[in-house]
Design goal:
The chain contains 17 helices and twelve strands. It is of the alpha/beta class.
Length: 362
Amino acid sequence: MELAVLGGGHGSYAAAATLTEQDHQVRFWRRDRKAFEPVLRSGSVNILDSNGGREVKIHRATTDLADALDGVDLIVIPLPALTHEALAKEMAPHLSDGQVVYLPPGTFGSYILAKAMRDAGNQADVSFAETGTLPYLARKRAANLVAVSAYATRLPTGVFPAKNSDYAFPILEQAYPVIERIEDALSGALMNAGPIIHPPLIMMNAGPMEHFDEWDIHNEGTQPSIRRVTDVLDAERIAIREAFGYAPPHFPLADHYSLDGDEWMYGNAAHEKLTDSEDWREYIDLTNHRYMTEDMELGLALLVSCADYHGLDTPVSRGLLALGSAITGRDFRETGRTLGNLGLAGLDRDALTELLYEGIRI
């Protein structure tokens, strides 16, 4: 299959290499030519995982977005949600009938991309999909070297509009056979693990993170008291999913930490693989790190707005959102990716359900 991978982050490099090794023809796009020069020059990505290190030749590396998107079947965007609005406007004129766009994860970015396409006057029949995590526990160790500690073994995925699911899933599953089909894109957004795992870790480790030059929130930063907060936060997420009528499995985050529970998105013992790699031992600036700007300001704000939509009491998610707002000086209820800011809070349940199934009507 011919597909495009967009972006210059950890997940994008991992996707370009691994999808190429699955015999797909990958067009790898990055905006920053200078940073992308090692890939442009060599035509390859270096990857290190449990199978060792190797150089993977890419079908095409480009800084031309139109060239990357032209005629491909699948577009994979493993980028932070912070990039969605700007990228959506750039992509909008270039999308064409039958293409499938995958956001792993999405934070309901599928709606943002679809709306940008319609706002640009593009009437193509395009499917947008999203899941709950990156397909790779990955970190770039050099300009053109990505290390992958673990691969996703389950990817609960929803499609927008949901009426395109039967068409979109076979294309998505060619690239990611571990996809598990779920109801729609909002269900996929409410699987997002980032707004559950990261807010308690950064808020409750704020002191040592600002004191030490490096701190691993997933290793010494994951202590029993923090895990208890995470469990309550995740229970609020599951309650929101149930209020929307979404069916289990809800992929509780507790399974990520368990060695013998139900298999989570990265399989059993994934947490241990992550901490053993030491790739997440880093300095985190609480004012602008993506754990704050993506997972709290966008992801957790979306979660709280979904609770508001149903009148649910979610004190832990609301409290963490307030703490993040206090640290950054921005009111995440105003600046975040909420149903209100997306223009959807005023829809009643029937209208929202119709939108998720039918898509954006002209």
